[in-house]
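Exercise 7 asks you to align residues with C-alpha cells for two separate proteins.
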Amino acid sequence: MIREGKKNNRLKTDEGKRGENQPFHVKHGQADKQQVVCGMRPVLEAIEADSQIDKILLQTTLDGQLSKELRTKARERNLPVQFVPVERLNAITGANHQGVVALIAPIAYRSFADMLQSIQEGGKQPFFLMLDHVTDVRNLGAIVRTAECAGVDAIIVPDHGSAQIGADAIKSSSGALLRLPVCREANLKTVINLALQTGLQVCAATEKGSTSYVAVDFRRPTLLVMGSEDKGISTEVLKLCDVRAKLPIVGQVQSLNVSVAAGIFMYEVLRQRGIE
C-alpha cells in the first residue's frame, strides 16, 4: 500500500517466502513528517534508485538473504544503518514493515568535494561550516538559519550521530535547510584533509584554543568547525585543525550554546570580509 494523508492505494507484489514481498507502505511519519519506505524490497529499490535516504532502521533480530543484501548495498553507498527493536519500527508505522524502514530525507545532500571545486572555480572565497556531531535539532536549525544569513557556502555534517534533518529541523531553521546546501559525509577527517590540501584554513571553535576569534584571519578560505553540545569537537577532528580559536568567557558559566557561538564566529567572518 502507498498511503499519503487520507489517500489510499494498494500495490501488490509477487508472493515470496518469509513474507519478503508483502504489500508495503510509503507514507509520511507522524512524528517528523518524513517520507517512510517500509518493506524489504521497497527499501532495496529505494537504495538502487539513489533516493535521498536519511537512515535505514533494521530490526535487531532480522536475518535472511535479502536483509544481508540490503546491508551490503547500504554499506556500499555509505547509508547510515541503525539496528532497533521491533517496537521502534511499530511506533514509526503501522504497515507490514518486515523489519526494515527507510527514512527519506526531505533535502538533497551534496558532495563537499563537488561544492568546493565549484566554489573555487567560480572565484569565490570559500566559507564552509562543519558541525561535529551536533545532535539537538533546534541547535542545528538555529545554526543553519544563521549560516544562510551569513553567506556560508555549505554545512557539513557526519552521516552518523548528527541531528536528524526532518521537518522539525527545517522548521527550526525557518526554511534555511531548504536553501543552504548540506554535505553529509562518512568521514569528517577526510573532509578536513581535502580542505587543507586545497588551501583552506580549518578553524576549530574551542575553549581549548589559545587564539582569540578576532585574531584569526577569516579573509582566507575557511572551514569553520563547531563541536557537539556536550563533548565539543572530537579529539581526532581537533588534531587536524590548523587553527584553534576561542571566545572570551568572563562569567561563571564556562560555555556558550553551540548555536550562539557559531553565530558569533560566522559574523566575525563577515566583519573581516567587509560585508555590511
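Second protein for Exercise 7:
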Amino acid sequence: MADVPFRFRSDDVVADPAVTVDAFAAQTNATAVRIEPGEDARALLPFLDRLRLVEVNFPTFTDGRGFSAARVLREAGYTGELRAVGDIGVDQLSHLRRCGFDAIAPSAELDPAEAATAFAVWPEVYQATGDGRPPIWALRHTAGRGK
C-alpha cells in the first residue's frame, strides 16, 4: 500500500492492491484499480458501486491527464477513495483536491508546512468541482438575499 500522507476522509485507508484498468473487469472481486495516463476513466463507470479505491498515477509532474480522470469519476457519482499517486508537487495539491481527490500519495516527501499553505491558497474558487466548495459567483449572487 502506498503511504498516504494527505487524506481527507474519515473512513479506513483502503489497503487492497490496485489492479490495472484492463485487469479490473476480469476480476470480479477487485475493489481497487489504478488508472495510468492514457487510460480512459469512463471504462470504470459501470463498476463504480463496487470500487473502494481508484488510484490515479501522475508519472511526471507535467502530465495532467489525471485531473480529468478525477473529474469524470466524481461527476459520475463515484464516492470511494480517489488517490493521486506519483510525481506530485506542492503547487498541484489544491488543484488535486479541487478535482475530487481525497487522498494524495506523492512519490517524494513534501514539506508539511508548504503543503498546508498550498491547500489554503485559494479560499474562494471560480468553478464548481469535486470538493464541494461553491464557486465565488454563486456566493456573490446569494450574499444580499435575506437582509
